[in-house]
Predict the structure.
Amino acid sequence: MDGILFWKGDILMINRYELIRPSMDKVEAMLKSSLRSKHRIINSAIKDLLESGGKRLRPALLVVCGNMGNKESPRLITMAAIVEILHMATLVHDDIIDDALFRRGVTTVQAKWGKDIAVFLGDYLFSTAFALITDNCPVENFGIITKTLQNICEGEISQYEDRFSTDVSRIRYLKRIMGKTAALFGLSCYLGAHESGCSGQQKSILFRYGISLGMAFQIADDVLDFIGDEQRTGKPKANDFTQGIYTLPVIHALRDKSLGPTLKEILQSFPLDKNDIKRVIAIVQASGGIEYSIDLINRYTNRAVNTINTLPDNGYKAILIDLLDNIKPCR
């Protein structure tokens, strides 16, 4: 297996799909104008964040689903900017917890400015998002937004709680990524569908599509920790398990009766040296952990396709399907 075909390009949503490009250009402009501050450090740190790349996947999902109904919403661009700002805030705080030096190949806020500034910046991003939500979001959607943020926090706490634990089950892992990743995908789709006047059934369909896409996305990202090209992923290979974050490929290998005990012994000899890392990767591959994970990716993408099967065929639905086609094994 040579790798995985996964989100070609950097700011993919702007460059790949002409149908939503005008809207995504407006989202980008909205992000820059909304995140301006009188404070030099905040402005500089946010400039770094905005210029560091990023797929803008969540706002793109909102824009796409915001065109699946029969209504044009003047709030659509603002709502798309909100979900990206929320995402940015979680990334800044996540990098503090992980003590990450790089994201997308660029120095993180906490590495450049220190943890204190990073905490304040994450809080600034959250407060900016909440101000935009208060002024633009329909009251009936406050509940799903706050619940999503709770799910993200719980997912991140579960991941932190599970660090260095070799007893994490597959079910616990899936619940963890449902909260920390898939929940915001589902929210993005739901909010877009609501803005476009979709029916309750259509909103439910697009929400479930977003959840399945988010699950596949996170598992694929975890697979890239073993087989990804560091220049493309923007983070070091084996970044997760060397920090005690055991994702699905490792969890699967730990359950292997012949290879699991050896893997457990290596992982418990923290910190891992270069030879340990090579041995872990070899055991995970020999156990079929990569294939198992890719099979689950395919199951989630198939579920997502089936979920939106009843929606009308149009260019926006084609984008949703194309996104799923970009998460697949490359042999």
About this structure: Residues 1-11 have pLDDT under 50 and may be disordered. The longest helix spans residues 200-227. The first strand starts at residue 3 and ends at 6. Strands lie at 3-6, 102-103, 106-107, 327-330.
